[in-house]
C-alpha cells in the first residue's frame, strides 16, 4: 500500500470485535513480562482487593482482536513501532466481555535520513458491554516503503 | 494504603529486570499475538539487517508498566501511560526502568502525579524507551 491508499482509509473504523478476558491469558502475559504481581494470578488475593477479580496489566489490551479495517493491508516488512500511548478509564478484569475496534486516524509522509517514511497513527478503542469506554490507545507505526528495521 | 506524598523531582522506585532472553521473546510473542519473526527467528532478523533478534518494543513498555504498578500499589490507578520507542533491546540486555515526578495535583481526595518514565540498558546509558505517565493515589 502507498500513501494515497492509506489516506483513503483514514477514519474508517473496524467493526468492534467481542473479546473475553481470560485469566489464563492474563497470567501468560504477566509471565512473559516477568511481572510477579499477585493481582494478575492469585484469585483469592484479587477477590479480597477492591477489584474483586484478577486484574490485567496496563499493556494487556495488546492481546485483543481489534477486527479488520476493510481494504487495509499492512506490509509485513519495513515497519517500526514508534510510539504507544494509553488512556485508562476503567480497569480490565478477568471475565470482562469487551468490544475492541481500531481505525487509522492519521497518515503523514516524512523524508528521513534513512529514506522516505510513512507515519501511520492507529487509534484503538475498548468498550464494555454497557458501551462505556474502558481504554483508548494510540499507536504510531513508521513504515519505510524502501525497507528498514522493525521493532 | 500509601501515605507517601509526592513532590516534583522525586524519583520513582527503579526496577531492574533480569536479562532479556530469547525464550522470553518467544513467550511474549505467544502471549501478545505479535509473531513478527524479527523477535524470534535469528536468520530472519539477520536478513532484515538487525544483526539478530530484537525484543518487542511492547515488552520493554511492559517492564515500565511493571515499575508503575509496583509504585502505585493496589489503591492507586494508572490514568495514562505513553512511550516512544527510541532504541533496540536485544537478548542479554539488562533493562532498568526509572521515573521522575514532574507535577503533583490534588483532586477529590487523590494526589494526581505526572512523571517522566524511561527504560535504559544501564544507569546513565542511552534510553531505549522514553515517555510519561499519570497516576492517582488516595490521599487518606
Automatic annotation (TrEMBL), chain A:
Gene3D superfamilies: Hotdog Thioesterase
Pfam families for the chain: FAS1_DH_region
Span of domain FAS1-like dehydratase: 10-136
Source superkingdom: Bacteria
InterPro entries: FAS1-like_DH_region (IPR039569), HadA-like (IPR016709), HotDog_dom_sf (IPR029069)
Name the UniProt record assigns to this protein: MaoC family dehydratase N-terminal domain-containing protein
Organism: Alicyclobacillus sendaiensis PA2
TrEMBL record, chain B:
Protein name per the record: MaoC/PaaZ C-terminal domain-containing protein
InterPro entries the record matches: Fatty_acid_synthase, HotDog_dom_sf, MaoC-like_dom
Pfam families named in the record: MaoC_dehydratas
Coiled-coil residue windows: none
Annotated MaoC-like domain residues: 11-113
Top-rank lineage group of the source organism: Bacteria
Amino acid at each position: 500500500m502507498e500513501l494515497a491508499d492509506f489516506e483513503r482509509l483514514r477514519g474508517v473504523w473496524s467493526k468492534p470485535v467481542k473479546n473475553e478476558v481470560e485469566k489464563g491469558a492474563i497470567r501468560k502475559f504477566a509471565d512473559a513480562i516477568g511481572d510477579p504481581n499477585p493481582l494478575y494470578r492469585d484469585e483469592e488475593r484479587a477477590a479480597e482487593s477492591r477489584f474483586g477479580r484478577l486484574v490485567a496489566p496496563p499493556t494487556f489490551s495488546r492481546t485483543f482482536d481489534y477486527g479488520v479495517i476493510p481494504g487495509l493491508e499492512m506490509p509485513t516488512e519495513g515497519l517500526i513501532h514508534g510510539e504507544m500511548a494509553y488512556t485508562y478509564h476503567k480497569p480490565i478484569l478477568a471475565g470482562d466481555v469487551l468490544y475492541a475496534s481500531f481505525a487509522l486516524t492519521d497518515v503523514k509522509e516524512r523524508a528521513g535520513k534513512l529514506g522516505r517514511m510513512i507515519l501511520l497513527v492507529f487509534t484503538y478503542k475498548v468498550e464494555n458491554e454497557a458501551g462505556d469506554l474502558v481504554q483508548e490507545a494510540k499507536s504510531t507505526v513508521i513504515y519505510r516503503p524502501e525497507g528498514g528495521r522493525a521493532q | 494504603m500509601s501515605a507517601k506524598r509526592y513532590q516534583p523531582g522525586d524519583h520513582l522506585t527503579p526496577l531492574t529486570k533480569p536479562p532479556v532472553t530469547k525464550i522470553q521473546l518467544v513467550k511474549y510473542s505467544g502471549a501478545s499475538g505479535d509473531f513478527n519473526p524479527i523477535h524470534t527467528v535469528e536468520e530472519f532478523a539477520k536478513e532484515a539487517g538487525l544483526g539478530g533478534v530484537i525484543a518487542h518494543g511492547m515488552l520493554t513498555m511492559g517492564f515500565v508498566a511493571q515499575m508503575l504498578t509496583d509504585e502505585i500499589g493496589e489503591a492507586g490507578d494508572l490514568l495514562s501511560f505513553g512511550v516512544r520507542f527510541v532504541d533496540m533491546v536485544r537478548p542479554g540486555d539488562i533493562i532498568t526502568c526509572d521515573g521522575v515526578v514532574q507535577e503533583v495535583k490534588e483532586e477529590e481526595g487523590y494526589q494526581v502525579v505526572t512523571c517522566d518514565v524511561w527504560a535504559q540498558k544501564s544507569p546513565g546509558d542511552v534510553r531505549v524507551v522514553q515517555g510519561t505517565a499519570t497516576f492517582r493515589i488516595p490521599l487518606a
